[in-house]
From TrEMBL:
Ranges in coiled-coil conformation: 58-151
Keywords: Coiled coil
UniProt-recorded Gene Ontology molecular function terms: dynein light intermediate chain binding; microtubule binding
Lineage: Eukaryota, Metazoa, Chordata, Craniata, Vertebrata
UniProt-recorded name of the protein: DAPLE protein
BP GO annotations: cytoplasmic microtubule organization; cytoskeleton-dependent intracellular transport
Organism, as annotated: Ceuthmochares aereus
This protein's GO CC annotations: centrosome; cytoplasm
PANTHER family for this protein: HOOK PROTEINS (PTHR18947), PROTEIN DAPLE (PTHR18947:SF31)
Signal sequence region: none
Length: 166
């Protein structure tokens, strides 16, 4: 029984290590998303209204990232608690069953966090696409305004000539 318990403890420790690695990757991805948001806000040259729109979207994404980072920290603390608990509960096989259930729950939470991070990445890509579209629209509107100004100037000139002729 003790050998079996020792093997089970080793398995749980390995599972905890895997969960911790996955959690760290999730935190790295969150940090990278934050960095991408900063780069996007630094390099995007939008009109004031476009800037405020993108800024609001970035703030929303940043707050989600912060929430995910807090969740990751909470999971890391739980993993450490589980590791400590697994070392102190060698005699109790019931404790191992509970730890296994908690590890499964943590795995599900990590998977959910990874899915949320993927959604955030997609959201950031959508924001970038929207930003590019807004810039293109702005450029097109500037061309239209310049064309209208040229037409107006031409009409004024024609009207002055006609007036002078009259």
């Amino acid at each position: 029984d003790r050998d079996t318990d020792k093997k089970r403890i080793e398995e749980l420790l390995e599972e905890n290590m895997v969960l911790e690695i996955a959690q760290k990757q999730s935190m790295n991805e969150s940090a990278h998303l934050g960095w991408e948001l900063e780069q996007l806000s630094k390099t995007t040259d939008l009109a004031d209204s476009e800037k405020s729109f993108v800024f609001e979207l970035n703030e929303c994404a940043s707050s989600r990232i912060l929430k995910l980072e807090k969740d990751n920290q909470s999971l890391q603390n739980t993993i450490q608690e589980l590791r400590d608990a697994s070392l102190t509960s060698r005699e109790s096989s019931l404790k191992f069953v509970e730890l296994e259930k908690e590890n499964q729950q943590l795995s599900k939470k990590i998977e959910k966090l990874q899915n949320q991070i993927e959604k955030e990445k997609q959201s950031n890509q959508d924001l970038e696409t929207l930003s590019e579209d807004l810039i293109k629209d702005k450029e097109q509107l500037q061309v239209v305004v310049e064309t209208l100004k040229a037409d107006k100037d031409r009409q004024i000139k024609d009207l002055k000539q006609e007036n002078d002729h009259l």
